[in-house]
Every structure is written in structure tokens, then in C-alpha cells.
Design goal:
InterPro entries: J_dom_sf, Tim16
Subcellular location: Mitochondrion inner membrane
Main location: mitochondrion
Keywords: Membrane, Mitochondrion, Mitochondrion inner membrane, Protein transport, Translocation, Transport
Order of helices and strands: HHHHH
CATH class of the largest domain: Mainly Alpha
Strand content: under 5%
Distance between the termini: 79 Å
Number of domains: 2
Protein name: Mitochondrial import inner membrane translocase subunit PAM16 like 2 isoform X3
Amino acid sequence: MGSGILIRAFAQAYRQALANASKTGVAQETLQNVAHRGSKIMTEQEARQILGVSEQSTWEEILQKYDNLFESNAKNGSFYLQSKVHRAKECLENVNQGKEQGSSGQNT
């Protein structure tokens, strides 16, 4: 009997939380975040955060940070962090190549 009351109270609280979230737009923001994470595409901002570099960092600085983080995670055995570091470098590599192609296309 007590568990039935607890389940009904939980269900009611959950419905109220959903109603409050839809009023404030939190539900829509959460869905957008889930959709973004589901796509598994790393943004440039995420990549820069992972590697600890700014938008003004040179490619050489990015590679140096990558090498340091990749090697330290290889030694300490964190494959997850090592893969995140690698994906961040790949993302910034694509951004860097795009900038180089854009600037060389403007000169011709």
C-alpha cells in the first residue's frame, strides 16, 4: 500500500516537473542538447576546451597541446580521454584546413 502511494506521488511530481520545464523552455533546450550529443559531432568550441587552446592559438601550439595530452593519457591508461583528445585534434585540423583553403582562395 505504501509503495502505491509513493509511485503515485512520484508520477505526479514528474508530470509537474515536465509542465514547469515546458513553461520555461528547459524541455526544448534539453531536447536540442540530446540531439546534438546524439549526432556525435564535436564543435570547434568543444575541441578548443578539451585541448585548452584559444581561437588565437597557432596550429603548432594546438599540436603541442595535443601531443602532451595524448601521451599523458596513454601513460595513465585513460583510453576515453585519449580518444576525446584525438577527436578534438581532428576537429581543429578540419577547421584549420578550411581556414587555409578560404584564405588561399581569396588571394587568387
